[in-house]
Amino acid sequence: MAPVGPIGLIALRGSEDFTEKVNFYLNKRRSEYQQEQIVNTYPGFFREDYTIPVENARFSSGEGKAVVKNTVRGHDLYLISDIMNCSCTYKMFGTDNRMSPDDHYQDLKRVILACSGKSRRINVIMPFLYESRQHKRNARESLDCAFALEELYELGVANIITFDAHDERVANAIPLAGFESLPTTYQIIKEMYRQVPDLCFSNGKFMIISPDEGGIGRAMYYASILGVPLGTFYKRRDYTRVVDGKNPIVAHEFLGESVEGMDILIVDDMISSGDSMIDIAREMKERGARKVFCAVTFGLFTEGIDNFNKAYEEGIINKVFATNLIYRRPELLEAPWYADVNLCKFVALLIDAINHDASLSNLINPTEKIKNLLATKEKIGLNPEELKP
Question: Do domains 7-182+344-358 and 185-342+368-386 have the same CATH topology?
Answer without folding.
Answer: yes
